Amino acid sequence: MADPRRAAAASAAAGCALAGTVAVTVAVVAGPGPGLTGYVSEAGIADSGYAPTYRIGMFALAGSLLLLAAALPPAARIAAALLVTGSVFTLLSGAVTCSAGCPLPPFETPTVADLVHGGASVAATAAVVFAMLALAFTPGASRSVRRLAGLGATVALPLSGLIALAMLAVGRGAVVGLLERVLLAVAAGWGLTTATALGLSRRR
Q: Taking the domains of the chain in order of start, what are their residue ranges?
């Protein structure tokens, strides 16, 4: 018998994921950022008129990860723990804004807030990617959920590696900006489709 609480959590996670993705996208596209040559986080700097929209989107995404963790089957404890971790760091990333340009080492000189924001963003993304990987190998999860997780991890893992190499080799620029957006789109898409799949399966 389907657990109505997990079904409700899955539906809420899908709604938060969609709302958060739309809010962050609006802030990035409509904000004064440098386009593909900059980081997504630049939409949330204090001087941006869309900073509140960006933060609301980030908080909604944090809530989505937490709700998705609650919607997973009991056997997916590792994936759930990773999603909770990702939620906490996403919340921190949204709460602590970076300075103009969101500078990061090794080519720029960051402030403490830049390091906290950047570290939280990286940790949040890594937690979500590892949650995909863990869920893909969880026997207690449904086949559709495992397939979505496997597909997400297959795309996200090499993208994460490319971003790390690009940041060390060339730093801020169009390459990192484009790769970052693709990776975040994969993570958001995985969260939305997985929450939807869980919600639909628990209503049958």
A: 4-201
